[in-house]
């Protein structure tokens, strides 16, 4: 199911309270038969919603759902170009498909992605109403050269927004990940549409683990952490979305004017591998060295035999040397 119809959306809103609702009541609300109600319930279960059915009581969500609220996010951010969708393939694809008709800063946020993905096309686990699946369109007037440090700038914006919610200790891993105490919290996926000597259209995708259900966490093949466990409380995704939009607008405007150099001190504060022994994996080759941060172009600086070399672009992965 790549899109959720109006009845499905109404049913989710009804079940969000975590209380039981009879099949008869649901059928009357949706204007459908009891058989159709059962089909809608099955469709919601297929996108990861844990819904109980108890004879004589009806249906309920296993846990109450705190749903995204488009108007609230717009009020918090101060920007109206926000579109909340319950189910779609991916927020990045949603904007890429409309890229010729978007205004700068247009944002799409989803409750669920049927084909969420990370860097190199990796699958991104996307349980319903649990995490933040977020994409923003940004037009880089200076062209594609400005895009080289974009994921680094976006990482700083995410940390800034989290700190405004009293979430402390999140660090950045070059080029596009956020970590907390050695575990992955979030990822960034930048997709570009540009030609040489022309403006660069960018779609900035951000996925943040907010509340990871145990059964979904078992599908992830690396150490992970979510915001609720870091903060010791329930993180409001609407507040996080609004603050993130506001932070991105501010930092992206500064980035276009000043470049990445203005943000280097902040990156060095947050770099989780700074001055550590690392392995840089380039294609099928492994290069060891000491991480010395980044330069003004967003390249990783690797010290090898007391000589510092920049690395950027292509299929590059960074790991601690003992991992």
TrEMBL record:
Residues holding biotin: 90-92, 113, 117-119, 184
DNA-binding region: 23-42
Catalytic activity field: biotin + L-lysyl-[protein] + ATP = N(6)-biotinyl-L-lysyl-[protein] + AMP + diphosphate + H(+)
PROSITE patterns: BPL_LPL_CATALYTIC
GO MF annotation list: biotin--[biotin carboxyl-carrier protein] ligase activity
Organism encoding this protein: Psychromonas aquatilis
Recorded superkingdom: Bacteria
Protein name: Bifunctional ligase/repressor BirA
TM region(s), chain numbering: none
Family affiliation: Belongs to the biotin--protein ligase family.
């Amino acid at each position: 199911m790549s899109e959720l119809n109006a009845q499905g959306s109404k049913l989710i809103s009804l079940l969000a309270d975590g209380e039981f609702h009879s099949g008869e009541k649901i059928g009357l609300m949706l204007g459908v038969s009891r058989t159709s109600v059962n089909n809608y319930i099955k469709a919601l279960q297929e996108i990861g919603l844990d819904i109980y059915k108890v004879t004589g009581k009806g249906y309920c969500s296993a846990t109450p759902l705190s749903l995204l609220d488009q108007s609230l996010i717009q009020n918090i951010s101060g920007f109206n170009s926000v579109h909340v969708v319950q189910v779609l393939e991916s927020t990045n694809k949603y904007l890429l498909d409309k890229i010729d008709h978007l205004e700068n800063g247009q944002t799409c946020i989803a409750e669920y992605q049927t084909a969420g993905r990370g860097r190199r096309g990796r699958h991104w686990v996307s349980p319903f109403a649990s995490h933040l699946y977020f994409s923003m369109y940004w037009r880089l007037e200076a062209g594609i050269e400005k895009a080289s440090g974009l994921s680094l700038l976006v990482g700083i914006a995410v940390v800034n927004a989290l700190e405004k919610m009293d979430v402390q200790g999140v660090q950045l891993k070059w080029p596009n990940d956020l970590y907390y105490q050695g575990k992955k919290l979030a990822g960034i996926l930048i997709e570009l549409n540009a030609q040489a000597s022309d403006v660069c259209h960018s779609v900035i995708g951000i996925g943040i683990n907010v509340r990871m259900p145990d059964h979904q966490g078992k599908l992830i093949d690396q150490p992970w952490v979510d915001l609720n466990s870091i903060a010791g409380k329930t993180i409001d995704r609407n507040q996080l979305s609004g603050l993130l939009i506001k932070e991105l607008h501010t930092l992206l405007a500064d980035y276009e004017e000043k470049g990445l150099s203005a943000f280097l001190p902040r990156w060095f504060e947050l770099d989780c591998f700074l001055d550590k022994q690392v392995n840089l994996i380039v294609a099928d080759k492994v290069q060891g060295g000491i991480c010395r941060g980044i330069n003004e172009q967003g390249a990783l600086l690797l010290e090898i035999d007391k000589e510092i070399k920049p690395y950027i672009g292509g299929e590059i992965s960074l790991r601690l040397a003992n991992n």
